[in-house]
């Protein structure tokens, strides 16, 4: 949340909602501590899952471009500006952030394997992007034109796969 509060993006052009899926930890309390930084808490009445949470908060948003992130992301202060700049091209309907895996405890074999996997995955996405194709994005950071977000998406589906596929199907 500190990183989001310090983004290199005009404050008047951004609204931030953290959706708490009836969290039982300190999420709500922590988010409320950032209210003076323009970070809003939206608490779901009952646990409903990620897609239901997105669908519920979407009508509250005013922007043309919606950026999705998750709690595990460390967001560089220039990330949103770079991500949003892709939408200067009217043919772009969805854009994914560049993910770099950082293992929280250092250089374990699992961490090295995960980092190699994400490096490979990133290279594939770079090549797909050159073909004007993006069959998936990382749910850790991506953006979509609001009018292209598939509000009818089933809760059991992965948004980071379904959103880009639907955007492509819509001709973007």
Structure description:
By secondary structure, the protein is of the alpha+beta class. The chain has six helices and five strands. The strands form two sheets. It has a three-stranded antiparallel sheet, with helices on both faces. A two-stranded parallel sheet has the order 1-2. Helix 2 links the parallel strand 1 (16-20) and strand 2 (39-43). The longest helix is centred in the C-terminal third of the chain and has 22 residues, at 109-130. The chain is globular, with a radius of gyration of 16 Å. The model has no long low-confidence stretch (mean pLDDT 86).
Shape: globular
**Counting H and I runs of at least 4 residues, what is the number of helices?**
6
Q: Could you describe the largest sheet, including whether it forms a barrel?
A: 3 strands, antiparallel
The strand line-up of the biggest sheet is 3-5-4
Helix content: 25-40%
Mean pLDDT: 86
- Whole-Å distance between the termini? 31 Å
Structural class: alpha+beta
Output the radius of gyration.
16 Å
- Detail the poorly predicted runs: none
- Could you give the order of the helices and strands? HEHEHEHEHEH
Described by its quaternary structure, the protein is single chain
β-strand amount: 5-15%
**Overall number of strands:** 5
Quick overview:
The chain has 172 residues and is of the alpha+beta class.
Produce the secondary structure layout.
Elements: H1 2-5, E1 16-20, H2 27-32, E2 39-43, H3 50-57, E3 65-69, H4 79-85, E4 94-96, H5 109-130, E5 141-145, H6 159-169
Parallel strand pairs: 1-2
Antiparallel strand pairs: 3-5, 4-5
């Amino acid at each position: 949340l500190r990183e989001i509060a310090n983004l290199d993006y005009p404050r008047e052009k951004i609204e931030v909602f953290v959706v708490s899926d009836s969290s039982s930890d300190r999420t709500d309390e922590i988010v409320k501590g950032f209210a003076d930084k323009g970070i809003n808490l939206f608490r779901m009445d009952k646990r409903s899952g990620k897609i239901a949470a997105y669908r519920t908060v979407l009508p509250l948003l005013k922007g043309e471009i919606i950026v999705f992130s998750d709690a595990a992301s460390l967001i560089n202060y220039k990330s949103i500006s770079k991500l949003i700049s892709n939408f200067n091209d009217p043919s772009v309907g969805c854009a994914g952030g560049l993910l770099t895996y950082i293992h929280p405890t250092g250089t374990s074999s699992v961490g090295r394997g995960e980092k190699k996997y994400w490096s490979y995955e990133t290279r594939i996405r770079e090549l797909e992007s050159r073909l004007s194709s993006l069959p998936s994005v990382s749910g850790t950071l991506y953006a979509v034109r609001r009018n292209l977000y598939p509000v009818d998406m089933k809760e059991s589906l992965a948004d980071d796969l379904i959103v880009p596929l639907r955007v492509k199907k819509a001709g973007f």
